[in-house]
Amino acid sequence: MNFWLQKKSAWAAITCILLTSTAALAQQGEIVGVPHAGAMGITVSVADIQAKTAIADLTLKPVHLKLEGGAMRHPAINPAAPQVASWPPANPNSPNSPNGITATQTIHSNFLGATLGEAGSVPPDNMGDIGTTQVCVAANGRLKFYTRNTVCAAAQTTVTTTSNTPLAGPALNADLDVFFSSVTAAGVSDPHVRFDRLTSRWFIVAIDLLASSNRCVIAVSSGPTVTSTANFTFFSFIYDALTPVPPSPYAGGFFDYPTLGIDANALYIGGRMFNAAGTAYTGASVFVVRKSSVLGAGPIVTTAFHQIGTAAAGIYTPQGVDNDDPTATAGYVIGVDNAVFSQLDIHRISTPGGTPTASAVIALTVPTTSSPLNQVNSLAGNTLDVNDDRVFAAMIRKNKITGISSLWTAHAIAVTTAGTGANSGAGRRNGARWYQIGNLSTTPTLTQSGTLFDAAATNARGFIFPSIAMSGQGHSVIGFTTASAVNFIDCGVAGRYRTDANGTIQPFTLATSASTTYAPSFDASPFRWGDYTQTVVDPLDDMTMWSFIQYANASNSWGVRAVQLKAPPPATPTAPGTIGCGSIVSTNYVTPVTLNGTSVSNSEFYDPGTGYTNRLAVTTTGAGVSISSLVFVSPTQITFNVTWPPALAGTTQTLTITNPDCQSVTTTYTLPTGCTPIPVRWISFTGREQNKKAVLNWATANEYNNKYFIIEKSGSNNSGFAEIGRINSKNVNGDNYDFTDNDPAAVNYYRLKQVDNDGKFTYSDVVLVKISGKFKFTAYPNPASNKLTVEYDEAYRKGNISLLNSDGKKVLSRSIAGFNREVLDVSSLAAGMYIIEIQAANGEKQQQKVLIERQ
């Protein structure tokens, strides 16, 4: 049998290429990158890929075996690391997922996606992701897209025991080498898949297998759904052809283990570099691909940060970090440190969509870590190769409940029976260590970490190749492979809830029940396994989780499992009882409702916000009854409006509250009786000066039995209002109105009198409008009966005041001698409309109508 074989390295004899120390790396400061414009993309139809795969599948291919050293690193102990299993140190009564199988978030869909028989490669480098319309399962040698059921639909399942039959009917079932054949003639390995929610595109990254100066290859889908009429655009770059060109033996070597993170601005691809012979690790690189450059025809723009980690120090196996926040402005990579255990190294990438700059290493001390063990399983004398303590998939997610974003990642380490990292000693077993890191934009800090481990004294389970993700609710799920000396190799999942004590995780559950051994004849113990898993959040609802995990699906075979996990249901609602009358819109009542709930076993209301197809929903029974203005307030409170017809007064109706994942709860409420309609609900009433005129605007939310609006005006003392106009009601659900006073005074007060069809009326608030540039003159009260006060500014001093009757004859006149105010006695005048005229010394006149009334 012909194998592609990368020589298994004797890492004890590695030639260490010491380029710089960790301290020197930290001191070198930030690195400004050099963007490199590469080749244009090559677009290939899905139909063409599938046709070429069909031809390739007619030829029996040998199994490709990629080997790699087991003990890849020998870091020093970090004396600052706390020797604990969790951070903060856990309450001893809190769960740490000990041996025993109990419930976590509920498994829904659970199917076999790809197998060794289809892919023909070891290890599988198992990978997958969930999109809005499809689910992708990837492995070395095989790439599949299945049509997914919605989160509301029935589960997609295949048997969880021994089986070589994946889920039927993939929309695309491609040979991975054929898939990338437009950009490389060599074999392809190490696929990473991401569905980008922000662009609704699939991104697939891999490397080709040229022994020297190999390529990173990238595929970008034309949309969210991969069908025969869709296409992919392919790009590539040769790592050592990017500026700056690295020195030998870094140049001309082999780029291995590409990782992938995507955000709004870029793709972040990390890699481990070897010399061409594959006998020496030469350091780590990070490649920042400008996202906009690969969303069209290209050219691809890549910025290389070579030797960001070296053969002896700095970041090891940098993991690009996913982030679906559309407002993100900086990217991140994270990895373990190559010089010491118990330290995570972070690099922040600023301006990733332009000229990226990588920060100096940000070192974060974590609880004690160690190299994992080769994992024992039920086949005595044989183990699985677990590589080293590199971190796996990393993501930044925002907790929509707290509003805080944090970074999550996980890796496998050897631990004691207490879950503490240990590099020596009897009784060690593999545990899955996970981390939550906060304060990312300033100085990152460890928010919490925990360890999924088995505390059994003998035959303890090991947990390897873990990956973790957090949903918008703040809940998290970790997926992993698990086995022991008495257990076959299975897929497992465990979850923690937002309200769990920091550093703890709920007991695990198995997603499969393997019953066959894994010892393929073309490999030798420790058998290649992994090299990673992938756990993600559903882009439809931001609350359902998926994990893509490897297990022994049949004798001497691996399978990649797609496991979907449902969040807890909505909170248990408290019945609102009889709701209020509210206000009238057209002929219906609109009642605001605050609905409270009780969390039972982490049940809660949830809404992911804009940008998601599935949202929180409330529906109601009752003919003509509807729900509007739904607002998610908290996990145990929502508000909304109930619109209902008066004919249903006194009836009891049912509310159904449905979370984005289609789990629902119900409660009842009663519509009130004896409600009195409110004719008008005001939204606003404003006034402003425009061209020496006073312009009034008002808006209503609803009008019921409303006849017209009277516009009333008063002088500077805000009393004695008089009508200056009226406008008929539009009698609709709400509208906008305006009125212009063409002859305002310097100071004017206005109000609206709303008059019903039956003659009843209400008033609006009062608004003030001042007219600049006019001499100030006002008379009040208006109407007047005995006394009429006239106020004026200094421009009218030494002037005259006159009162004219309706015929224009002066009935009262006097010279102005007072100090800005004159009081006129009008008690002897007949009732009627008069004009008060004030004339300044320069001859300028102003007039104002005034009504004199008699009781």
Can you describe this structure?
By secondary structure, this protein is mainly β. 3% of the residues lie in helices and 46% in strands. The protein contains 4 helices and 62 strands. Strands 1, 20, 21, 22, 23, 24, 27, 28, 29 and 30 form a 10-stranded mixed sheet that branches.
Short description:
The chain is mostly beta strands and 855 residues long.
Helical/strand content category: mainly beta
Helical segment count: 4
What fraction of the residues are assigned to beta strands by DSSP?
over 45%
**Ends distance:** 118 Å
Radius of gyration: 37 Å
Mean pLDDT: 89
Overall body shape: elongated
Reported for the largest beta sheet, the result is: 10 strands, mixed
Task: Please render the helix and strand layout as text.
Elements: H1 22-27, E1 31-32, E2 35-37, E3 42-45, H2 46-56, E4 64-65, E5 106-115, H3 116-119, E6 121-122, E7 127-130, E8 134-139, E9 142-147, E10 172-174, H4 176-179, E11 188-196, E12 201-208, E13 215-221, E14 231-238, E15 254-256, E16 261-262, E17 266-274, E18 281-290, E19 301-310, E20 315-323, E21 330-337, E22 343-350, E23 357-358, E24 362-365, E25 375-376, E26 383-385, E27 394-399, E28 404-415, E29 429-438, E30 445-452, E31 462-470, E32 476-484, E33 487-496, E34 509-510, E35 527-528, E36 534-537, E37 545-554, E38 557-566, E39 572-573, E40 577-578, E41 583-585, E42 588-598, E43 617-620, E44 626-634, E45 637-644, E46 652-658, E47 664-670, E48 680-690, E49 693-703, E50 706-714, E51 722-728, E52 736-741, E53 747-756, E54 761-763, E55 767-770, E56 777-780, E57 787-792, E58 800-804, E59 810-815, E60 821-825, E61 832-839, E62 845-852
Parallel strand pairs: 4-6, 20-27, 26-35, 40-47
Antiparallel strand pairs: 1-23, 2-19, 3-14, 5-38, 7-8, 8-9, 9-10, 11-12, 12-13, 13-14, 15-17, 16-17, 17-18, 18-19, 20-21, 21-22, 22-23, 22-24, 25-26, 27-28, 28-29, 29-30, 31-32, 32-33, 33-34, 36-37, 37-38, 39-42, 41-42, 42-45, 43-46, 44-45, 46-47, 48-49, 49-52, 50-51, 50-53, 53-54, 53-55, 56-57, ...
